C-alpha cells in the first residue's frame, strides 16, 4: 500500500514538473514576443521622430534659404496695374548688375509651384549672375486658380488673356523703373507657365524679343480646364495655325516671335506631340516658307543629357528651336531634383534658354514703348 502510494506520488510530481516545464516553454516565447514587439514599436517611433525632425529641418531651410545666386533676391513683391489688378512677383538682380541697360528674363512657374521654388529648381539666377540680366518671377494667385495654374486653357480676355496682359504690364513697369533694355525682354515658362509664356509673347509681340516653352501645351486648343487636360494628353486634333491666330496679336506675323521649345520625351502629363505642334505653330510665325529645311542634330548621345535639336533659320540666325530630351519626364531639364518638377537628367534647360535668348533682340521696342506711353 505504501509502495503504491509512493509510486502515485512520484508519478504526480513528475507530471507536475512536466507541466511546469511546458508552461515555462510557452511563457518564454510569449515574453520574447512582447519584448520584440515593444522593441519594434520603439524603433518605429524613433524612425517617425527622426523623419519628422528631418522634414522640419528641410521645411525650415526651404523657408529661409534664398534661391541660388550671389545677387539680391526680393520676394513677395506686389504689382498693381492701372485697373487695380494685383500680381505677386519676386525679383532677382545679379550682384554685378550694371546701372542700366540689363536684359530681362521673365520666368513663369507651373501648377503647384511658387516663384521661389521655380527659382531654386531652375537655377536661372546663376545664369543671371553670369550673364548680367535681371529675372522676374511672377506668381499666380490661389484666389484666381487654386493650384496656382496660369489659365492658358482659358485664353479669353477675362481669364488667361487678362493674366497675360497683367504680366505684360508688370514687365513694362519694371523696364522703366530699372532702366532695363526694352529690346532684350524674354519670357520663359514650365508647363502651365509655358502656356502663359506663349500667350504673353503672342499678345504682346512688340514687347517680347523671344519666348521659351518647356513642357508646354499647343496654343489655342483649349478653352476650359477640362479641355486643357485633354490638350495636354493628346495635343490638338484641329488645324493648329488657325488656333494660334485666334489668340495672337496679328502683328506677331509681321514682327515674328523667336521661340525655343523644350520637351521631355518621357513626359506623362504633357504629350510630346504638343511640342511638335508648337514647333509648327511658331514656324508659321517666324518663317512662312514651308519649304525651308530644318537643321537637325543629336547631342549628348549615349548619356543622360541626350537630346535631339531641330532648328529653323532665317538667314544664319536661328529663329525657332525644338529640343526633344530623351530621359526627362514632366520636369525642368537639368535642374535641382530636390525641388518638385525639376529633373537632374537632361541638359541644363536654363543654359539652353539663356543661350537662345542671347541671340535675339526686338529692334524698335524702345520706340514702340515710347509711342505707347505717349498714347497713354
Automatic annotation (TrEMBL):
Membrane-spanning ranges: none
Keywords, alphabetical: Hydrolase, Signal
SUPFAM superfamilies: alpha/beta-Hydrolases
Organism classification: Bacteria, Pseudomonadati, Pseudomonadota, Betaproteobacteria, Burkholderiales
PANTHER family the UniProt entry points to: BLL1128 PROTEIN, UNNAMED PRODUCT-RELATED
Superkingdom of the source species: Bacteria
UniProt name for this protein: Esterase, PHB depolymerase family protein
Example of a GO MF term: hydrolase activity
Keyword tRNA processing included in the entry's annotation: no
Amino acid at each position: 500500500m505504501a509502495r503504491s502510494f509512493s509510486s502515485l506520488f512520484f508519478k504526480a510530481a513528475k507530471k507536475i514538473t512536466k507541466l511546469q516545464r511546458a508552461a515555462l516553454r510557452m511563457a518564454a516565447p510569449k515574453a520574447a514576443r512582447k519584448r520584440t514587439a515593444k522593441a519594434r514599436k520603439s524603433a518605429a517611433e524613433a524612425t517617425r521622430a527622426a523623419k519628422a525632425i528631418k522634414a522640419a529641418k528641410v521645411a525650415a531651410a526651404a523657408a529661409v534659404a534664398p534661391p541660388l545666386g550671389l545677387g539680391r533676391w526680393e520676394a513677395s513683391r506686389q504689382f498693381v496695374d492701372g485697373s487695380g489688378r494685383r500680381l505677386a512677383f519676386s525679383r532677382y538682380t545679379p550682384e554685378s548688375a550694371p546701372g542700366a541697360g540689363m536684359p530681362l528674363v521673365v520666368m513663369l512657374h507651373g501648377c503647384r509651384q511658387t516663384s521661389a521654388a521655380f527659382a531654386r529648381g531652375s537655377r536661372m539666377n546663376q545664369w543671371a549672375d553670369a550673364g548680367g540680366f535681371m529675372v522676374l518671377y511672377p506668381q499666380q494667385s490661389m484666389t484666381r486658380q487654386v493650384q496656382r495654374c496660369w489659365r492658358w486653357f482659358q485664353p479669353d480676355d477675362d481669364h488667361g488673356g487678362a493674366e497675360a496682359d497683367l504680366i505684360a504690364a508688370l514687365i513694362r513697369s519694371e523696364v522703366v523703373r530699372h532702366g532695363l533694355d526694352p529690346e532684350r525682354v524674354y519670357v520663359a515658362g514650365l508647363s502651365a507657365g509655358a502656356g502663359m509664356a506663349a500667350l504673353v509673347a503672342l499678345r504682346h509681340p512688340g514687347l517680347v524679343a523671344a519666348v521659351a516653352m518647356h513642357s508646354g501645351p499647343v496654343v489655342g486648343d483649349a478653352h476650359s480646364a477640362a479641355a486643357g487636360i485633354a490638350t495636354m494628353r493628346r495635343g490638338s486634333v484641329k488645324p493648329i495655325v488657325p488656333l494660334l491666330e485666334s489668340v495672337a496679336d496679328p502683328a506677331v506675323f509681321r514682327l515674328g516671335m523667336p521661340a525655343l521649345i523644350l520637351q521631355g520625351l518621357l513626359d506623362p502629363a504633357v504629350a510630346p506631340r504638343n511640342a511638335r505642334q508648337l514647333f509648327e505653330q511658331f514656324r508659321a510665325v517666324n518663317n512662312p516658307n514651308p519649304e525651308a529645311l530644318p537643321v537637325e542634330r543629336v547631342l549628348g548621345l549615349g548619356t543622360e543629357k541626350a537630346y535631339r535639336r531641330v532648328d529653323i533659320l532665317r538667314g544664319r540666325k536661328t529663329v525657332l528651336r525644338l529640343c526633344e530630351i530623351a530621359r526627362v519626364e514632366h520636369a525642368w531639364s537639368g535642374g535641382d531634383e530636390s525641388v518638385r518638377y525639376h529633373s537632374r537628367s537632361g541638359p541644363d534647360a536654363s543654359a539652353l534658354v539663356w543661350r537662345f535668348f542671347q541671340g535675339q533682340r526686338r529692334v524698335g521696342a524702345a520706340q514702340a514703348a515710347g509711342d505707347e506711353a505717349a498714347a497713354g
